[in-house]
Amino acid sequence: MRSSQLLHSFRRRHLLAAVVLAMPYVGYAADAVPTEDVESLPEVKVTSKLEKNQPSEKTKSYTVNSTSTATRLNTSIRETPQSISVITREQLDDFRVLTVNDALSYATGIKVEQFETDRTEYTARGLNITSFQIDGLNSPISFSGTNYGDLDVAVYDRIEVLRGANGLLAGTGNPSATINFIRKRPTSVFQVKANASLGSWDNRRLDADVSGPLNADGSVRGRLVVANQNRNSYLDRYSNERNVAYGVIEADLSENTNLAIGHTYQKNDSSGNNFGSLPLLYSDGSKRHYKVSDSPATDWAYMRVGTHISFAELTHYFNNDWKVKAQLTHKDTASEGRYNYVDGYENRATGLGSYTSYPYIYSFQTKDHVADIYANGPFELGGRKHELVVGATWSKSYMKEYSRTGDTLGDVFVSSFDDLGEFPMPSFGPKSKSSDYQNTITNLYTAAKLNPTDALKVTVGGSLLSYELQGVAYGTDQIAKENNKLTPYAGAVYDLNEVHSLYASYTGIYRPQVERGPNLKVIAPLKGKNYEAGVKSEWFNKRLNSTFSLFRTEQENQAQSIGTASFNGSIINTYEGIQATTKGYEFDVSGEVSERLSMNAGYTRLMSIKGDNDQNVNPYVPRHLLHLTTVYKVPFVENLKVGGSVNWQSETHVDIALNGDSIRYKQGSYAVLNLMANYKIDQHWDAAINLYNVTNEKYLSSLRYASAGQAYYAAPASAIATLTWKY
Q1: Which pLDDT score is estimated for 30?
Q2: Residue 133 contacts residue 69 (beta carbons within 8 Å)
Q3: Dihedrals φ, ψ of 372, to 5°?
Q4: What integer pLDDT is reported at residue 569 of this predicted model?
Q5: Three-state SS for 179?
Q6: One-character DSSP codes across 278-322
Q7: Considering the entire predicted model, what is its pTM?
Q8: Which of 60, 156, 507, 590 has the fewest CB atoms within 10 Å distance of its CB?
Q9: CA–CA gap between residue 725 and residue 81 (Å, rounded)
Q10: What are the start-end ranges of the E strands in 406-479?
Q11: Can you tell me the distance from the alpha carbon of 546 to that of 557, in angstroms, rounded to the nearest whole number?
Q12: Looking at residue 171, what is its pLDDT?
């Protein structure tokens, strides 16, 4: 190598090292974006065993070769005895998907319940999702599963969705689904990617991703991802800014030992956001209609959410193909918001309503510490080779909530709906603590993947869970404890031929709950059983995966909303535990049909969600969910690809209590169509256009909490244009 090349290589490596090592400081700088040009680096071959499982950004596929979300044993989707979907980096880029809310709308069976501008929950198979992971390690987005603000997906290679219970690794078996976010990792060759986007309602975004080796032999590698997005909204008075920074360094300490450390920072800053929403009825019980842009939020409302996630991983490979991996992570989230929740209904004849004001400032802080260590590898029994994983997870979470109430709390006033957004800001009282509690969980787990014959693979395992909840919330002691609660797991996959396999699985359900009863104490743990069976197939030389599954879930103490309670001005949802049985079927397909056609599609049919009195449970969840995404590389226009995505759901409803009556509010079935086109100008430049809700469908974003009589409309037709530079 000539001296000039050596000098260039030296500069590149040390520039990347500098920006990655500056990560802790970048996290606190809202507008940190690298501005220096970076030159190319000659390809460096790295023999790290981490390259064995390629990331989806490298394969450019709509599916993956292997997943470990179910058992920590790297298996193909076909060999995983549960239903699983993957939203890959290629699909996220094709449709310019920027947030977790948008990403999960592309996953089979997932319903994104955005019931307010900055609060969202997710359901699968008719039930709330509370199990979230990052790189397979538990990382709750909140104690209740509510997502505050928009989570950005710039830092992730893909998102894996395991439907059904996952008590083996999560410790707490949730019968809906587990969402596993897989981070981007440093690459062995130097690469840079930058995007600039401009869209509807002054939507402006810049993001950059730089990765590569930090030393001559590539044994130390780094990656930095940053993003800034500013946007106004179709909603009156609402705007949002989001900043993201992620840095990670990987080092091969030896031929068989690897260390990774990293940090993620995200800040959401919203103004004019709603808390509660549009009254759905008039005072006489008739249905109200609004403009899509209508919002009761005041211009002095705001919500700020800041999250820091630090992690470290140490992996050692033994010569007998066994591996030991230890992981540590710390997550710190702080949020504060100022709101005015308004309760009341308008008189249809006069145009005036009698409203009650509930203004307050709500803030919370959560800290999550998680440690995990496991070993997995092959062993021989009966002359055949099998696989085993043994591990332990310890976590401790802290939650503190504070509130300040406005001096107009509980005041009743008469006003037109159009004037609610101009409600004057009251004076707020001193800060008081609403909650202060902690939750400690220990989970011991093991699973064995047995191969009795070439065609049959059986996975058996279980977890041993201990947990303790203690503290005070809303003036009530929060105490719950359980030791050595066993959650079993069993699954089998039988290959019919080279393409098709039959599978079946059984998973125990046990989850300590955070939902509170009318006495404001947490309700009893969720218990039950999850059954699943179906057919899995690999088509077109394993480039396309498909799954047809039948599922049935039997539960005790399923949390069912029964109303609200008030504590120092805070409106708290209350629940009761009921028996519930869920059954249905799903179809999922993802991958490449040909070299030019990629697809991701799925259909979920919830045949019933019945309570112990045969009542219809969670009617706000659609009983039919369908999504279809296709992208086609146009043969007669080189470097052009076009695509479309459609999401359809069936009718939903809620029952609203008004003046002693129960009024059924229905939302009819609807479909949302998105379109995309991307043209590769040359090896460095791409131009793309994405259109969302092309038919301008008008629909409520969620009926999740509409039994309280409020909801708001989702975004109308919009567009975003993106220019991409790659090196």
Answers
A1: 37
A2: yes
A3: -145, 140
A4: 59
A5: strand
A6: EE-BBTTSPBP---TT-----TT-EEEEEEEEEEEEEEEE-TTS-
A7: 0.90
A8: 60
A9: 41
A10: 412-415, 432-450, 456-473, 476-477
A11: 34
A12: 58
| CA separation for the pair 698, 610 (Å, rounded) | 30
Q: What is the token pair recorded at 421?
A: 């957004």
Other CB atoms within a 10 A radius of the CB of residue 45 amount to 9
Whole-angstrom Cα distance, residue 369 to residue 373? Answer: 14
- C-alpha–C-alpha distance, residues 410 and 390, integer Å: 55
| Run of H or E residues at 15 | helix 3-21
Tokens at 515, concatenated: 């939902």
Assess contact for 231 and 202: CB atoms under 8 A.
yes
Residue with token string 């199990």: 131
Low-confidence ranges of the chain (pLDDT < 70): 1-52, 167, 169-173, 566-571
> What are the C-alpha distances in Å from 607 to residues 36, 530, 547?
56, 16, 18
314-358 pLDDT tens trace? 999 999 999 999 999 999 999 999 999 999 999 999 999 999 999
Q: What is the radius of gyration, based on Cα positions, of the chain? A: 26
Distances (CA, A) of 713 to 101, 278, 625: 15, 9, 19
Q: How far is CA 24 from CA 125, 241, 244, 246, 265, in A?
A: 39, 20, 12, 9, 9
Token duo for residue 277: 């929403």
* 398 alpha-carbon distance from chain centroid: 21
What are the contacts of 8-11 at 24+ separation with CB within 8 A? 8/39, 9/41, 9/42, 9/216, 11/39
* Alpha-carbon distance values, 348 to 277, 283, 289, 412 (Å): 18, 7, 11, 19
Residue-level pLDDT at 39:
40
- The pLDDT, as a whole number, for residue 509 is 86
Task: Write down the pLDDT at residue 560.
Answer: 78
Identify the helix (H) or strand (E) that includes residue 170.
helix 167-170
**Residue type (1 letter), 134:** I
Tell me if residue 702 falls in helix, strand or coil.
coil
User: Are 166 and 256 in contact, with CB atoms under 8 Å apart?
Assistant: no
The three-class DSSP label of residue 234 is: coil
Strands 131-134 and 177-183, sheet pairing: parallel
Tokens of 17: 């090292």
For residue 630, give Cα distances in angstroms to 9, 524, 541, 718.
Answer: 41, 44, 19, 20
The CB density around residue 642, as the number of other CB atoms within 10 Å, is: 17
Rounded CA separation 283/354 (Å): 9
> Given the DSSP bridges, would you call strands 220-231 and 156-163 parallel, antiparallel or unpaired?
unpaired
45 CB-near residues (< 8 Å, 6+ apart): 188, 218
What DSSP line would sit under 111-123, residue for residue? EEEEEETTEEEEE
**Which pLDDT does position 480 carry in this prediction?**
84
Strands 137-138 and 544-567, bridge-based pairing:
unpaired
Q: Which long-range contacts (CB under 8 A, 24 or more apart) does 101-106 make?
A: 101/147, 101/150, 101/151, 103/153, 103/159, 104/159, 104/161, 104/179, 105/627, 105/647, 106/600, 106/627, 106/629, 106/645
CA–CA dist 437, 630 (Å, integer)? 47
**In sequence order, which residues have a C-beta less than 8 Å from that of residue 463 and are 6 or more positions away?**
167, 168, 169, 171, 443, 444, 445, 486, 487, 489
Helix (H, G, I), strand (E, B) or coil at 24: helix
CA distance 233 to 81: 43
Q: What is the spatial distance between Cα 146 and Cα 211, in angstroms, rounded to a whole number?
A: 33
